[in-house]
Amino acid sequence: MLVRTVGITKRYTSGGSEVHAITDVSLAIEQGEFVAICGRSGSGKSTLMNLLGLLEHPDAGRYALNGREVAALGEEGRAAVRNRQIGFVFQIPALLPRASALENVELPLLYAGVVRRERHRRAGAALDRVGLAYRRHHWPGQLSGGEQQRVVIARAIVNDPALVLADEPTGALDSRTSADILAMFEELNRDGRTIVMVTHAAEVADRARRRITIHDGRIVEDHGTPRGRPSLDRLSLDRPSLVAVGGAR
Q: H or E element: which one contains 31?
């Protein structure tokens, strides 16, 4: 099992009151799935993605990624897991404006200590994979919105991560460009990439093979679950492979 959460919960304090963004979410995602997490604004879907991406700590519950309990990791360990095992694609590309497409894609490899020649080779291969090898020396300002998002996808896969997380990846694009980007995700998934995509748009969620709907911080629907998946009620909280993370900060 690539992703397994058991009862994870995330709370925030707003205006002196406590808000439950995610409540008691148990989830299992296998290697090679293409999952859409959907729901209205404020439903908790982006918070769930941030928890899966180790960008935030849960207040309670358990989370194992690729068979490893992540709660026991310190901040350096979490950063290393994010860099090596998780690729991120956000709605706004957030590329470095004074770096070329190739240099932007190289960033995760740079943080991982990969030598320059190997960085160039792997980043070039990733750009070729998304159809932008001929744009490797262009700056972000010289690229269209769709091309910038393709650079972000190349950056997300350059480290060969176990999991690619995409938060509203087509939200800032026109319909034609959005279709191209979604086709790219489908192609990556056919090649074996595990993709979890957050979206509020039904037509975008329809491109995934499985759809999970979040409402008020809870999973209310889970469609397209592959056969052979263990039932969530069998993900016991007392399994020795999962260590409690309640109150982790």
A: none
Neighbours of 89 (CB within 10 A): 23
Structure tokens that stand for 147 in this block: 């091309």
Range 118-122 contact pairs with CB under 8 angstroms and sequence separation of 24 or more? 122/158
Distance CA 221, CA 216 (A): 12
Q: Are strands 60-65 and 3-14 parallel, antiparallel or unpaired?
A: antiparallel
Domain 33-46+74-224: assigned CATH number: 3.40.50.300
pLDDT digits (tens, 9 = 90+) for 154-181: 999 999 999 999 999 998 899 999 999 9
Domain spans of the chain? 33-46+74-224
Instruction: Write out the two tokens for 190.
Output: 């056919």
| Full-model pTM | 0.87
**What is the C-alpha to C-alpha distance for residues 201 and 40, in angstroms, rounded to an integer?**
9
